[in-house]
Amino acid sequence: MWLKSKTNHRKTSRPKKPPFTYTELIEYALEDKGELTVSGIYQWISDRFPYYKSNDDRWKNSVRHNLSINPHFRKGVKAPQGAGHLWAISSGDSAENVLAWEHKKQRLDLFFKMESINRERIQQHQQQQQLQQHQQQHQQHSPQQKQHSAAQQQHMPQASSCMYDEAAVAVATLTQEMMQTNSGGGSTETSQQQQQQQQHHHHHSHQNHQNHNQHHQRLLPFNDLLSDDELRKTAGQILNGIHREVEVQSVNSIISTYHDVLLDNDYLNPIHKDVVVTESVLRQQHGTNLGGGNNNQNNQMGGNSHMGGGNSQYYITEIDPMELGIQMSHQVEPSEEEVLFSDEFNLNYFGYNPGSDIVA
DNA sequence: CCCTAAATCAACG
DNA sequence: CGTTGATTTAGGG
């Protein structure tokens, strides 16, 4: 089994451009510091976003341009020392924009949160690499037998254990509805905002899914999937090659705070599991119908997915492939710079079709 | 395809 | 540094 990264990354890939507009970056800076000179803004930005560390100064021009253009920023008094004026957020718009700001702030927080998670993942990954290399040196391993320790990797802790029981991990996979704790009204608000983002960024129809969040009652996805035992069995079959024509998609789960969402490649726009499943036709109703919102009774992913060749079964997993001990195709150690904004680890990883070289 | 927002380029004080 | 205009680019409808 192998996984192919969706994006080929070039060796020379520089830090990725952060998903924020100049307006947002400036906003963050000013909101954080209150007042800043232009060069102060440069500093603030380049301090936390490696992308803007380059010698290329074009972006500075854009920042200045933005300050002038956007009425949201106001020019204050002349700066104490030398250059230019102090800039601040225009105070006239704290009225309704508070919500907008909250939302933006969340985005920023989430961004850095994900960034740190990626760091951890990469560390893990590298550890595993070393481990495996070490092991391979000292023992010949018969491909037939895999150890089936009943490791319960249920809620995937932080960065600690690296499990090689593929089946177990794959099992841990789907279906684990993440905890269903309902944390107050704040959470609801969050969900709504996220859904708005979805609409913005996703190309499909969402009307069907809109109300999923409303029912907090156990309507979390995957309730109706296989039992644990069945899953274990099935996953084992998949991984042992008994099941063919299966695609496994990994969807990184977001941390506990955001228990009700999944992340796909766009972690700033979390997607509800239901949406992921339904929209990618992972589970298709036998009877074509998918309206009515919450009637997913069929577990067995009978869906004939449109992707890849013909009708392949489709599983969705929250487990990062790396944690399965699965090698990625490129095998390149990302540089430290690359760590930050590489999309390498936020993406969907597509396995695998024994015979054919289907690409994602 | 057109439309908009954002990014980029560029000139000037 | 700060303004301004022109041009290009990215995405969505």
Structure overview:
There is one protein chain. With 360 residues, the chain is mainly α. Among the domains are: 22-98, Arc Repressor Mutant, subunit A; 154-326, no CATH class. The chain has helices spanning 22-33, 38-48, 58-69, 97-138, 166-173, 184-201, 228-239, 273-279, 336-341, and strands at residues 4-5, 36-37, 73-78, 85-89, 246-250, 313-317, 349-350. The strands form 3 sheets. The chain has a 3-stranded antiparallel beta sheet with strand order 2-4-3. Helix 5 (166-173) packs across helix 7. The longest helix is centred in the first third of the chain and has 42 residues, at 97-138. The chain is elongated and about 70 Å long. 26% of the residues are buried. Mean pLDDT is 53; it is low at 1-12, 143-228, 243-265 and 280-360. The chain binds a DNA duplex (13 and 13 nucleotides) through residues 21-23, 37-39, 58-59, 61-62, 64-69, 75, 83-85, 200, 203.
* Broad structural category: mainly alpha
Task: Provide a count of the helices.
Answer: 9
H and E order: EHEHHEEHHHHEHEHE
Helix content: 25-40%
Shape assignment: elongated
Beta-strand percentage?
5-15%
Low-confidence stretches: 1-12, 143-228, 243-265, 280-360
N-C termini distance? 15 Å
In order across it, which strands form the biggest sheet? 2-4-3
In total, the number of strands is 7
Compute the CA-based radius of gyration. Answer: 23 Å
What is the overall pLDDT average? 53
Largest sheet: 3 strands, antiparallel
